[in-house]
Amino acid sequence: MTGPMNNAEFGGTLLRWLSESRSGRVSALRDGVRGQARAWGLELKEYADWNWMRKAAALGFIDVDLRADRWSAAPPVLTRLPHADGLALLTGARTARISTRVEHAAREWMELITVPHVPEAGEAPLPDTLLLQYEDPRALEETAEFLGLRHVPCAALELMKLLPRATPGPESAPPGGSTANTLEKYEPRMRRFVPVAGDDEDGLYRWRGADYARLTRVRRNGVFHAVDRETGVYLELARHRTGVLRWRPESGQGRAGVGRLFVDRYAPLPALHERAAVLCSGFPPATGKHAQTSAYDNVPRALAEAIAASLGQDLEIMPRSVAVTGGRTE
């Protein structure tokens, strides 16, 4: 297929392919994102394929295991949004059969709200967000069964119970002599990895392995441990007592317990933490001014505190009237 298209077609077509394929290699998914973009005349910026995959996982469409180089379509789910006044989210796999049932129900009796994704320049469009408006939560289980979905009362709050505490992983081999030219160490004050000559200090390191894959390891008391990049960054931030998470309650009456979670962009949340935050609204995080923050909407304070505690962070609670500029309060 060639020619112009709208964002909904791109994200929906890609999700349909993933849903019908069920599983595959992460490397093939990245190629698929870029291949479809070329077919539809979209010019993607560097790492747009990674960003699409990460956001699709956070939205609950797919599950990704980078270590195994595997992705799989997530189970189709209907779940309530927390404190959202009668809104439920349809997420997970979106096969042709499920889409047909949803379209039929929307024409006949279901109050469906379709919100297209508006990507940043150079980003790959995500699938539409599908929200169901309901009056009686007891009817959601029956609706889910009709649509061929699994009913989960509130996925975001269920995930809150499963958030793992950030800890170093299993013991791992240190960098070898052949990695010297690619060895980098994370510097919290500079908010990035920088080249270093050696690994004689505790900290977070990364380097290119024998197969050119980038390895991330944390060194504690002279011993290296396997860790994913996001968790490793938060381990370092905790070690240096650096805070990057802020939460601001909403201003509406009766909304003090729910608000917006702000995360510094240089310290993205680990996958499960991000999914919990994203499934509070059904939308990917908004980008703050100067692209220094990611903001997650409709996040209960209890969930924000659980995310912070599991990552070794002290959550900063902001007054309702405080504005955010460039990732900092003012």
**N→C terminal distance:** 49 Å
Residue stretches low in confidence (pLDDT < 50, at least 5 long) are 1-5, 322-330
Oligomer: single chain
- Beta-strand portion reads 25-35%
Domain count, please report it.
4
Q: How many strands appear in the DSSP assignment?
A: 20
Q: How are the strands of the largest sheet arranged?
A: 6-7-5-4-8
Helix/strand/pairing class, anyone? alpha+beta
Biggest sheet record: 5 strands, mixed
Broad shape: globular
**Count of alpha and pi helical runs:** 9
Radius of gyration: 21 Å
Elements, N to C (H/E): HEHHEEEEHEEHEHEEEEEHEEHEEHEEE
Question: Level of helix content?
Answer: 25-40%
pLDDT averaged residue by residue: 91
Give the helices and strands, then pairings.
Elements: H1 7-21, E1 23-25, H2 26-39, H3 48-58, E2 62-65, E3 70-73, E4 77-80, E5 87-91, H4 96-108, E6 111-115, E7 129-133, H5 140-147, E8 150-152, H6 155-160, E9 184-187, E10 192-195, E11 203-208, E12 214-220, E13 223-226, H7 229-239, E14 245-249, E15 258-264, H8 271-278, E16 286-287, E17 293-300, H9 301-310, E18 316-317, E19 324-325, E20 328-329
Parallel strand pairs: 4-8, 14-18
Antiparallel strand pairs: 1-3, 2-3, 4-5, 5-7, 6-7, 9-10, 9-11, 11-12, 12-13, 14-15, 15-17, 16-17, 19-20
Helix pairs in contact: 2-3
